[in-house]
Write a structure and sequence with these properties.
mainly beta, 13-stranded parallel β-sheet, 13 strands
């Protein structure tokens, strides 16, 4: 059975599947969910990067916000927020406005807060 067509009202989101590996520079103008492996650089300046449990990102990340359940190795530059879920493992420096590190998350790096917008 073919997949249902995406409704015009459904927010767009790209997906790196659990059996996929992407290597290189990735830029998107929609949210991105990584369940597989991504290596290189990620640029989503106005959108959210979500790393699912089992997902691995080894990249410099620029995004509006980042939600991590899997692993990230690399620096995060976020315009807004970062959420590290209990299963997450992050190695790298984080620049953001807000951060939520949940119990069980593993984080090694430096956190720098952006100044509030004027």
């Amino acid at each position: 059975k073919p997949p249902e067509p995406q409704s015009v009202n459904t927010p767009a989101r790209s997906f790196v599947g659990s059996k996929m590996t992407v290597i290189g520079e990735l830029e998107a103008t929609e949210d991105l969910l990584v369940a597989g492996s991504l290596e290189g650089s990620v640029s989503l300046p106005k959108h959210t990067l979500t790393v699912a449990g089992g997902g691995r990102v080894k990249a410099k990340v620029t995004a509006h916000s980042v939600i991590v359940e899997g692993e990230i190795e690399g620096d995060l530059d976020c315009a807004d927020s970062v959420v590290l879920k209990p299963t997450s493992k992050v190695t790298g420096n984080i620049l953001m406005r807000r951060i939520n590190i949940m119990d069980g998350a593993v984080f090694n790096g430096k956190v720098t807060m952006r100044s509030p917008e004027k």
